[in-house]
Amino acid sequence: MTTFLTMAYIVLVNPSILAAAGMPLASVTAATCLSAAFGSILMGIVARYPIALAPGMGLNAYFTYTVCLKMHIPWQVALGAVFLSGVIFLAITAAGIRQMILRSIPHELYAAVASGIGLFIAFIGFRNAGLVVGDPATLVGLGNIRNPTAALALLGLIVMVALEVKRVRGSILIGVLAITAIAWALHLVHWTPASGGFSSLTDTTFKLNISGAVGKGLLEIVFVFFFVDLFDNLGTLVAVTKRAGLIAADHSIPRLNRILFADAASTVFGSLTGTSTVTSYVESTAGVMAGGRSGVTAIVTGLLFLAAIGAAPFVGIVPQAATAPALILVGSMMLATITEIRWSDPLTAVPAFLTLILIPLTYSIANGLGFGIIAWAVLHLAAGRIHKKDWLLYVLAALFLARFVYLGTS
After folding, report:
1. Which H or E run contains 334?
2. 56: which DSSP letter?
3. What is the tens place of the pLDDT at every residue in 1-11?
4. Rounded CA gap, 100 and 93, in Å?
5. Which DSSP category does 105 fall into?
6. Global model pTM greater than 0.85
7. Cβ proximity of 333 and 243 under 8 Å
8. Helix 148-165 vs helix 107-129: angle between axes, to the nearest 10 degrees?
């Protein structure tokens, strides 16, 4: 329930973004819920991990604003490109390539990824609470703590931390429900029911245009969907499993193939129902913090998303003032992995720092990990500490560098 509550915003946000591309709002809302339900339940049953999935933020914006609006690609063709990226995911998972990529990245960078995602989640929480706001002079600044949302969020953080100190099970969920009740009592929650349901799925289900995606030569778009989802997923996967204590002593992740299969299959399913790339969610760490350790967590989250299809607008009854402190608390706890980094060694410290700091500053797990991998490869190359077994890491560094150069010219 905690995982669902921290992710429920996607039911409202994803459709609003994809609707700007011309997609039917009610249908995308149902597709968002259905794909999140499918992915989360599949992850819970097949991989038995407490990792929930849903259409990814960032990738949905790229789908709408870059592919559909800027490049004038119809949303049906864009869905075809998402489908192809999912098929590629399945193929390289079956071939063991994704597993090789995961094993090639130094575990110190994964520790940095987990900490960076902690900062990322906390930053999202501060933003949602109104404690951090945009500032034209300094980019960001302190919000007004007299604002009811900010004040309630701070109260929620105090309640959650107090319950956590007393080791009360479900401390985060209790805090979320308590602040929700207070917000309702003070008439601070505003939401408007809208149409939806399973029947609306017909407007987007199987409307993708795969031949159009191939015919228009959209391979670069397919590559972007594939590339960003790959490293966002790997970063999230490591962060959640580390927080849950599920990574083995040799830094390997048990049942890795099943996790990657569930993720790839969910992207294919999502494109068929009518939504952008489905990926693992960093908010899953909130459920882990609340005690989730098995696939049951993901299955329950999926069932709640399934139930949300008929009542999608009503997820807005939980205000951001209630979920924001959960994200802040989870983010702070995820910084525990920072102690695994050898800060006295510049060859390790600099790439780890770049990874850690650029994830929240660029709003992208993939960007942070990309800079970290490039820095690791360049610094080790300059120091003459290269080994044949690290060849894939250097290939990844070259691919990331090519991606950054491409983004800089696009």
Report:
1. helix 320-334
2. P
3. 889 988 887 88
4. 10
5. S
6. no
7. yes
8. 130
